[in-house]
Specification:
Nucleoid_associated_NdpA, 9 helices, 2 domains, alpha+beta, about 350 residues, Nucleoid-associated protein, globular
């Protein structure tokens, strides 16, 4: 559970971090920013910082040596949590320097790097402190209208940050210190190098293995199996593919606990398909080096997030779509040799207006 509705902003610093390989400068703030509580600026910046974060998957800091203390960001966060009053500006500068050192891809944009110390965050039922890291890379143009004198107005074009569009962010939660802290990441839909450096090069994060992680993992396996194995290349029609996806999602939506054998018997059913699924699951585990457990608690939020990835629409040529959310056995696929076209026959009992 994540509740950021009553978070208090105790400290905030701003640094300008350019792209190192493009010879852009690093400009470190020497003092904390001063924001009056309840001011428009305070409210705006808190919305900008916190609104993008939603309950879901969490991460830990990690290091390839398997000693989390080697991770530089973990060390900065640990020292800041131990003494937020005296160490805040220094450790925020250290974080900015580290971000600058890891901004080594030519496409990475420079920007404003905010570091904030937050209190009263509710994460998984605990009231905890957090360190917020936020980077704004994209500026937008807007027109500012001012009244210079009565009946006389002026218009100027300015650039600023859209508070509804946080580019990159994370919350380091003061919890599970020995494991590398809980870390929440602002999701990025892009998988490009310049988008991933924040998570991998700068923070060096690995997914926290909790119920969300295991649920999402297994749903990804189900989706991958249908896309790569249980598909038309192996003489499986689209309605049958959707049927397996829908039944998989239904299983996770209705159950509290996952059991692999139960899932295979109730959802997949056919022995040959079960064998193919088992082979794919083992191959998936090796390919992505991910642990796949036969039993775990199902996380409803992970199921909800996965729904958008489980397609239930047949797209036929242009502007023809059939939404399929059940009763896939009532759909037949065929081919008309005279028209040289494929077709679907849909059987039904009642028509709803």
């Amino acid at each position: 559970m994540l509740d950021l509705s009553n978070v208090k902003l105790k400290n905030i610093a701003l640094h300008k971090v350019g792209n190192k390989v493009q010879d852009e400068p690093l400009s470190l703030g020497e003092y904390e920013l001063q924001l009056e509580e309840d001011s428009a600026a305070h409210k705006g910046i808190m919305e900008y910082f916190l609104k993008p974060f939603k309950d879901g998957g969490k991460y830990h800091f990690w290091d390839e040596s398997e000693d989390v203390n080697v991770n530089e960001m973990y060390g900065f966060a640990k020292r800041l949590f131990a003494n937020p009053f005296d160490e805040f500006v220094l450790q925020s500068q250290n974080m900015a320097k580290h971000l600058y050192r890891t901004s080594t891809h030519p496409k990475i944009k420079g920007g404003d790097f905010f570091v904030a110390y937050l209190e009263d965050c509710i994460v998984d039922g605990d009231v905890v402190d957090a360190i917020g890291l936020f980077k704004s890379e994209n500026k937008e143009r807007f027109l500012k209208v001012s009244e210079k004198d009565q009946g006389m107005f002026g218009v100027a074009q300015e650039e600023g940050v859209n508070i509804k569009k946080l580019d990159k962010g994370c919350l380091i939660i003061k919890s599970e210190e020995e494991k590398g802290y809980k870390v929440l990441l602002k999701d990025s839909p892009r998988k490009s190098v310049e988008a991933q450096y924040w998570k991998e090069s700068f923070l060096a994060l690995t997914p926290r293995q909790d119920s969300f992680y295991h649920t999402q993992n297994y749903l990804n396996i189900c989706k991958g199996f249908v896309e790569e194995v249980f598909n038309e290349d192996h003489n499986v029609d689209k309605p049958d593919q959707m049927d397996l996806l829908n039944r998989s999602l239904k299983y996770f939506a209705e159950k509290d606990e996952f059991n692999a054998i139960e899932f295979e018997n109730e959802v997949i059913e056919e022995p040959k398909v079960i064998d193919a699924f088992t082979d794919y699951r083992e191959e998936y585990q090796e390919r992505f080096e991910l642990p796949v457990y036969p039993e775990f608690n199902i996380d409803p939020m992970a199921v909800k997030r996965s729904k958008k990835d489980f397609k239930s629409v047949l797209k036929l040529d242009q502007k023809i779509q059939i939404s399929v959310s059940g009763n896939e056995h009532n759909i037949e696929k065929g081919y008309d040799p005279e028209k040289e076209m494929n077709y679907y026959i849909v059987y039904y009992s009642e028509e709803e207006s």
